[in-house]
Amino acid sequence: MKIFAYERTKQGTGASRRLRITGRTPGILYGGSKEPQAIELDHNTLWHALKKESFHSSILDMDINGTECPALLRDVQMHPYKPLVLHVDFQRVDATTKLHMKVPLHFSGDENSPAIKAEGCIANHVISEINVVCLPADLPEFISVDLSGLKKGSSLHLADIALPKGVTTVTHGSDKNPVVVSVVAVAGAEVADTVASPAASDTPDTSAKPAAKAAAKPAAKSDAKSPAKPATKPAAKPAAKSAAKPAAKK
Question: Cα–Cα–Cα angle for 212, 213, 216, nearest 5°?
């Protein structure tokens, strides 16, 4: 992949800020037997190049004012929230010096593996890139990983990956053979080969309906006493007073 750069004469914070205003990105090219060189690149061209995987993991043909130089992208500084590249670092490549690079992994064939196809599992990609050491001529753009042989309960380790000629892996920490892909069973997945159909005798008769109740409401008992209403007493009539008048005095 080819990229064009230009020699940068002015350096410093203020010069870099003015450079970004004009649509350029400051950078530096170091390594090899030469002194570090300040360069600048077109921001839009660099922005689109950073979206390509090969720009990060392959040797670039850098053209600086008409002079070609093989280089590797080593660092990119982005703005915290703006789509703006603040600074880039490149390293010169020596054909006789081994490189330490991160190479992406390209997975394929997992949909044809027995674990995914027939056993209700999924392939969990634990590692998406690995560290390798090789000469510049042997540096691969990516490493292909075939997952068609995955089975339930198994996993793919770093030692199981077929590496290109001249490429060796580098691991950090105590684990020298880390897991690259693990097979995970999906919770609640039903596999047709392992699920047996229930016996006919054990199948409950769902057609039988529960017996209907004899009466929706309990029958009233014949001897049940209905609540008595208070008897209405007839109003007592006042006793008839004698209409006799007192006898007249003689």
Answer: 120
Q: What order do you get walking across the sheet with 121-125 strand by strand?
A: 121-125, 179-185, 155-157
Nearest-5° Cα angle at 140, 135 to 141: 135
Strand partners, 220: none
Residue 41 backbone phi and psi in degrees, to 5 = -135, 155
Please give the angle made by the CA atoms of 173, 179 and 180, to the nearest 5 degrees.
Answer: 115
Condensed to tens digits (0 to 9), the pLDDT of residues 158-212 reads 999 999 999 999 988 788 899 999 998 886 655 444 444 454 445 455 444 444 4
What is the sign, positive or negative, of the torsion defined by CA atoms of 237, 238, 244, 245? negative
The span from the CA of 145 to the CA of 164, in Å, is 12
Pick 236 or 3 by higher pLDDT: 3
User: d(Cα 82, Cα 70) in Å, to the nearest integer?
Assistant: 30
Query: Is the distance from CB of 179 to CB of 126 less than 8 angstroms?
Result: yes
What is the distance between the alpha carbons of residues 136 and 70, in angstroms, rounded to a whole number? 10
